[in-house]
Design the sequence.
């Protein structure tokens, strides 16, 4: 009888699997007060910008070629093409030996990589506006221009204005999203800090370039902003209504390793479900950055 | 569409001819099964709200086939609901395919099942994988089940499976499954002395856990302070992937006296039905009954709080699918048309109430009981919302989402009355060929139960009478008449139905529901019906014509909406 009772308890415990969650359960995603003026803009002249998310690593031998290819496309698109370089994976981006002492990986970058699949696909990899296409094209940088060209430029759902305020310790970004069209699905807004002109070793297929210039490198997300962004249209369940404007602000503490004058902030309007980027904007914090 | 109809007609009639011969022997085993074809030709009637239907002829069809040889059984069910009756389309029970298949082996000690199966632990507080064809519910599990009887009186069960979601057969992409175990010890079967003294004593317990991968964050609006609103975020890692329920139960009996009870608890389970709160759920059922020849009395109590338990946290509760457990309705169940539209729907996420019923048979050949005796029954049921005190954090945030939600004293009745029914009926055979039944109900019904919390509570008096006259051998007439008198909802109703039966094969009914007291005189409509049924051995064919009013259909406290309809119905059912 004793054995039977013990067997019952053992079987029950085997099946009981339960996650006890400790509070607090939710986070308040509270925007900081908007403290800047947004200059008036003509919404009829707003263009769709293209965001390109490139996955790279300072120990990735083929990545400099991909970066050079992207740089070669920049004159064609000008400010319409916004690039962000995300260093990922232990294989290609972890510190190693005396040459690769820096770790440019970030928690927010790892989340983006996990969603895209770049952490398992091999590098370099990249996609425009996070629109899924074939894995082969994802990791074949020569076809990235096709991906960029496939973005529907006629779809301009909103205008993004960003006004930075930089203090000694923090970078604050005031944001205004003016909806041009109804967006009948929840959207998020994400903010990333990138840096140009970082001189640091980079492995190539033949050698290590010790004074390689890393540009558009993702350095950080913003405080209280999720990797793929936060909702900001509170009254309409995250959806956008044409003609309405939404203002909010977030900030991030300055890391002493960053050269703020070389930094930029990228703001993205993101489809919450698919994570597709439906509008993008970039603001330089210094006197200008790499193209 | 015409091809499909021709095929179905051909299939139905050939099938009836074949299956009329009963079970089919195959070697040492037998093949058995059942078949149903329930069809309707829909016509539009804008007055009653019967909409035009794009595909006018619709049918629900299924076939069960089982093979049994000794302790081995296997079987499958094919369902063709591609163009189902409109009731079923509205709850998304639409599609076709082999929806159920299993193999089962049983001996004196063990029973193992692989494939689709149904199972219930105790009252169903933790697990009730069941089907109800009338409601369009099939919560079967696809996986494995083991039942073990290691010693007489000791029953162990284990289940592991993915729950059926109507006609979505994409099981490989599912991120959710259910596992559970149940144990029961019947002491009267183990110790003969207990049974010899007319006692029964059973204890049991169950554990059920569901897994559902948590991938997406959940956003919701919150109030930061009196003027500032913002977003709350439930991160995916704060949404439990494994949610468990457990229950303990007992059953004690001595001669005609019986007491049973079950308590269940559910761990944090934020989901769509509870507005993503984290408090634990609880349910308690208690029942005391006594019966002796000609007399019976029962009293039951039920409380449930945050006990809606589904395989997928985003499941739509109005569609009925994906419910793992079952909180029963303990009130008296009626089949009468007029009060059927105000049946009590069980509220797993919050109700408390009780039911009592006394049945007495006045002995025959007495002054009051008459020559054949008289049955009387008196019942009373009352259910309230539970008493809730909103969590302070929820109060300040303006939403219960992402908080403990509320607290509730266990035995406190909330101020919101859901349902009340005082019922009385008397049945008497006044002559060897005449039987009379009279009934009365005082009904209070809160439309919160149908999702309309602001609608006026219905207070109604329901009177009914039924007379059966057996006027010749095998020939009988039954007349049923009911009135519902109320000032609320659609006002007063009358129902009249006459049934002629020529046993054992023919049944003919004509009836009418008349909304004679509708405040809008133009809506004092008739809902007439006529039907003919023919029964041959295990086969039944039925042809009907008429109108069905919009309302609800409830079975055991589980309800679904019924849209208004008008048309011709044809039903074939058979067993073999």
Sequence:
């Amino acid at each position: 009888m004793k054995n039977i009772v013990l067997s019952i308890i053992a079987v029950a415990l085997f099946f009981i699997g339960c996650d006890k969650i400790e509070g607090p359960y939710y986070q308040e995603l509270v925007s900081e007060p908007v403290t800047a003026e947004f200059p008036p803009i003509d919404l009829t002249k707003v263009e769709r910008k293209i965001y390109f998310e490139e996955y790279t690593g300072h120990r990735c031998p083929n990545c400099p070629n991909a970066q050079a290819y992207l740089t070669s496309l920049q004159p064609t698109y000008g400010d319409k093409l916004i690039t962000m370089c995300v260093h990922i994976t232990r294989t290609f981006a972890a510190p190693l030996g005396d040459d690769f002492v820096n770790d440019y990986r970030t928690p927010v970058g790892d989340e983006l990589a996990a969603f895209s699949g770049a952490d398992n696909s091999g590098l370099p990899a990249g996609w425009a506006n996070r629109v899924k296409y074939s894995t082969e094209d994802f990791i074949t940088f020569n076809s990235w221009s096709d991906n960029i060209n496939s973005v529907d430029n006629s779809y301009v759902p909103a205008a993004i204005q960003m006004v930075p305020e930089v203090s000694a310790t923090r970078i604050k970004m005031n944001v205004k999203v003016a909806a041009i069209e109804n967006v009948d699905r929840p959207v998020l807004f994400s903010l990333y800090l990138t840096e140009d002109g970082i001189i640091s070793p980079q492995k190539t297929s033949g050698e290590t370039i010790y004074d390689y210039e890393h540009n558009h490198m993702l350095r950080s997300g913003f405080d209280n902003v999720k990797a793929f962004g936060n909702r900001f249209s509170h009254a309409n369940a995250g959806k956008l209504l044409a003609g309405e404007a939404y203002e909010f602000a977030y900030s991030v503490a300055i890391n002493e390793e960053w050269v703020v004058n070389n930094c930029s902030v990228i703001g993205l309007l993101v489809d919450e479900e698919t994570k597709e980027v439906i509008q993008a904007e970039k603001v330089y914090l210094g006197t200008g950055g790499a193209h | 569409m015409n091809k499909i109809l021709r095929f179905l007609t051909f299939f139905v009639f050939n099938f009836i001819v074949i299956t009329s011969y009963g079970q089919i022997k195959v070697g040492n085993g037998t093949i058995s099964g059942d078949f149903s074809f329930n069809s309707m030709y829909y016509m539009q009637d804008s007055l009653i709200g019967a909409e035009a239907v794009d595909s006018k002829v619709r049918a629900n069809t299924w076939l069960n086939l089982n093979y049994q040889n000794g302790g081995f059984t296997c079987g499958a069910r094919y369902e063709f609901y591609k163009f189902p009756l409109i009731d079923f389309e509205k709850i998304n029970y639409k599609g076709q395919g082999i929806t159920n298949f299993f193999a089962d082996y049983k001996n004196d000690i063990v029973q193992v099942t692989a494939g689709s199966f149904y199972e219930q632990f105790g009252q169903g507080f933790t697990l009730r994988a069941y089907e109800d064809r009338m409601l369009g519910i099939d919560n079967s599990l696809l996986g494995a089940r083991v039942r073990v009887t290691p010693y007489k009186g000791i029953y162990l069960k284990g289940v592991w499976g993915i729950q059926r979601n109507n006609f979505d057969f994409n099981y490989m992409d599912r991120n959710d499954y259910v596992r559970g175990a149940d144990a029961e010890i019947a002491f009267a079967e183990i110790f003969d002395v207990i049974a010899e003294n007319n006692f029964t004593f059973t204890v049991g317990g169950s554990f059920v856990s569901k897994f559902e991968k948590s991938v997406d964050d959940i956003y919701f609006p919150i109030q930061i302070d009196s003027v500032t609103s913002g977003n709350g975020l439930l991160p995916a890692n704060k949404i439990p992937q494994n949610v468990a329920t457990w229950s303990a139960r007992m059953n004690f009996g001595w001669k005609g006296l019986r007491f049973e009870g079950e308590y269940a608890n559910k761990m944090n389970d934020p989901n769509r039905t509870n507005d993503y709160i984290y408090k634990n759920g609880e349910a308690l059922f208690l029942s005391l009954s006594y019966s002796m020849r000609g007399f019976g009395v029962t009293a039951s109590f039920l409380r449930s709080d945050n006990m809606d338990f589904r395989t997928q946290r985003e499941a739509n509760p109005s569609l009925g699918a994906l419910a793992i457990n079952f909180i029963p309705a303990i009130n008296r169940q009626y089949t009468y048309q007029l009060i059927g539209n105000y049946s009590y729907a069980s509220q797993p996420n919050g109700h408390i109430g009780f039911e009592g019923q006394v049945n007495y048979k006045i002995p025959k050949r007495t002054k009051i009981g008459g020559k054949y005796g008289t049955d009387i029954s008196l019942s009373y049921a009352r259910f309230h919302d539970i008493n809730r005190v909103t969590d302070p954090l929820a109060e300040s945030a303006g939403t219960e989402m992402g908080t403990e939600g509320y607290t509730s004293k266990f035995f406190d009745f909330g101020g919101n009355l859901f349902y009340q029914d005082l019922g009385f009926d008397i049945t008497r055979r006044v002559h060897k060929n005449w039987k009379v039944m009279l009934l009365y109900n005082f009904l209070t019904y809160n439309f919160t139960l149908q999702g309309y919390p602001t609608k006026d509570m219905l207070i109604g008096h329901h009177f009914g009478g039924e007379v059966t006259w057996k006027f010749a051998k095998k020939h009988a007439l039954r007349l049923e008449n009911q009135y519902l008198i109320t000032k609320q909802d659609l006002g007063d109703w009358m129902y009249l139905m006459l049934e002629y039966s020529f046993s054992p094969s023919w049944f003919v009914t004509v009836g009418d529901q008349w909304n004679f007291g509708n405040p809008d005189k133009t809506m004092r409509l008739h809902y007439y019906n006529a039907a003919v049924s023919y029964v041959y051995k295990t086969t039944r064919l039925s042809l009907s014509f008429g109108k069905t009013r919009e309302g609800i259909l409830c079975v055991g406290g589980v309800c679904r909406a019924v849209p208004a309809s008008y048309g011709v119905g044809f039903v074939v059912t058979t067993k073999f």
User: Anything to note?
Assistant: The interface with chain A takes residues 150-151, 154, 156, 158, 179-181, 183, 205, 207-209, 211, 217, 219-222, 224, 228-235, 238-244, 246, 267-268, 270, 278, 393, 401-404 of chain B (CB under 8 Å). The radius of gyration of chain B is 26 Å. Helices of chain B lie at 2-19, 86-90, 187-190, 192-196, 337-340, 392-397.
